[in-house]
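hey m, so remember when u said the tokens were messed up on ur end? i reran from scratch. heres the input so u can diff it against urs
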Amino acid sequence: MVNLQEYYDKALTTSEYRETLTTLEDGFNKIYDEHEVVQDQSFEDFKNSGRKLLVIAEPWCAHCMLNLSILFKLSVKANIDVKVALRDENEELMNQYLTNGNKVIPKVIALDEDGQEAAVWGPKAPMTDLIQKDLTKNLPEKGTTEYEERFEEVKKEMREKFSTSPELWDAVEADLKKVLSA
């Protein structure tokens, strides 16, 4: 098992991570600026959890754009420290948090006061999964030219949906708070 505290100590701050954003920066900033954190009981539980968060992510990932913009804003409101380890630079860490054998991101690891894993969230909230399944249900067979063309369109539709749906943002926030404070 990897030493999570060591990864946390060398990971990017949220500001440093935001500086790595390129094509998804506008969407990230839009969500961050427009999303309003719901300060309910689950927020208080999250805020009082005494945890810090280690995130495995990449700046080119649309799911990271959606989830990290909400997580960063939530963590600022709750005064929770967050650091980001880039997936492609931290293979040993990523290999400890595979989803069905795949390196799917983001993964959010809540660390207790001793730097040990207390909870893991990711790679996406249930509502995000439903949206993704709906957008990809009619894709042509993988490996064909038609698939590649349509898949690029679906990725664009997904990025658009992610950056324009306050209902989705609220669902992501609720799921993050629930899982990370459990």
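this time it looks ok to me. The first strand starts at residue 12 and ends at 13. if urs says something different then somethings off w ur setup not the seq
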